[in-house]
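ENTRY TYPE: paired fold submission
RECORD: A
CONTENT: sequence, then structure tokens
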Amino acid sequence: MRIRVRSFGRATGGVSAVEFALIFPIMLLLLVGIIELSNGVDNWRKVTLLSRAVADLTSQGDKQNPMTDAAMADILRSAKLILRPFDTTNVKIVVSALGVDLKGFSLRPVVCSSAATDNAQARATGPASDLSVPQGFQVTGTRYILAEVTMPYAPMLGSALVNQLGGTNGRITLTVNTPWPTRGGQPYGVNPYSEVVLPKGAPCPAPVT
């Protein structure tokens, strides 16, 4: 009996199989995590590119001011192509033309006109209490475009963990806001800065002097 016990203690057969069985789940988890991280980063990158594209294209304006509904719709529709192969169904885009009046509203920009995709809400005109004028635009009379993009991202695994980290229904909301200098449009009144007016909108009010 003792000989058998000693023999069993010295046996090494099957050790590799046991080690592999212990390590394999960890390796598989790491592989899935790397794939998920790569997928999430790629989605975030595309949302960022989408926001920049919308801001850039809108800042160039249209042949007329205000822009036509067709021109704005083309920008919003074509920009979504950047997100492929990700699903664009639930992507929300809001683009606004903003004005700066440091004397009248300090660092709060004024929403002069705004447009959005059908599943989103355009911003109301007037001072934006939830925004601050970014550096580089903090000059009275400046006009700029702000593109706001949100998109839900659902990881393949770990929906419960996502919910614990602040997600909803196993999804994370990716949000990218991009301010962009106005490149087209025209100046209004005595203000020397050009302004793009979005469909059915009006020029910004003259800043306080």
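RECORD: B
CONTENT: sequence, then structure tokens
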Amino acid sequence: MTDTISSTGAPMQNTRLTARALLLGDRLDVAGLERSDVLSTTPLAFRAGQDGFVALFRYGVAVLVGLTPLEEDEIIRGLRQRIQGEFSRHEEETAIIEISPDRDDQIPPGGPIYIKQLSTERLIVIADALSKSATLARDEREATAAFELVEPSVEHLAQKGRRPRDRRKILKHVGRALLVRQRMSGRVAVEEKPDVLWDRPDLERLYARLEDEYELKERATALHRKLEVLGDTAQALTDIIDTERSLRLELIIVLLILFEIFITFYQMFTGASGH
């Protein structure tokens, strides 16, 4: 594909662009968002502003490239009705893109993302990596918060050999932890590569470098393990509560049986004394 051009039809002149991935909410409804300047449908990408580019991902992320703050605000306002479960705080991942015809596509440590040519496909590849990084950042924070909720109960169990007395509070924390796990499961498949690579396998190396730079695979693996531990911990706490409840019921049944035996013997004794 040819170089990306601005909304005015002229080639983009900037050699340095700022790319921002904003996690706006749980989902972003892009159905029916028809535009005459669509560059891609998966993700939905189009030109915006004077020299800008926007990519929208269904898992709640908007990636804005080369836009002014006013243009960014305008885009976000236009998307507000399409955001499902909007977050009060928008997770953000920012990168600098530098167009350098004399360099290969590369990302030096701590430096900008160098690209040989500013094309729609390259921007989509970069947007994909940034959107996944922003999503992982929020999921990591939520998973950590869920761990902090159940940790006191686990520590009490380890130190005292029994669960804390406030069963309702434990169940509330377990419920929140399971809710976090459910919300994160299947939100975004970090391991999946962007569809554009099917048509542009020459950009595989750029995507691999972005994966390494943002540690996407490592973070996704660590998050999945944390979610598994979180689920196992929640299950263990609920099992303990269920076991205690079962033991309590069994004790009540035993006491009722003993009471019935006592009544039977008492009636037999009083009946024998009457004769």
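NOTES ON RECORD B: Residues 1-12 have pLDDT under 50 and may be disordered. The beta strands are 16-28, 38-41, 44-48, 52-57, 61-65, 83-99, 113-115.
STATUS: closed
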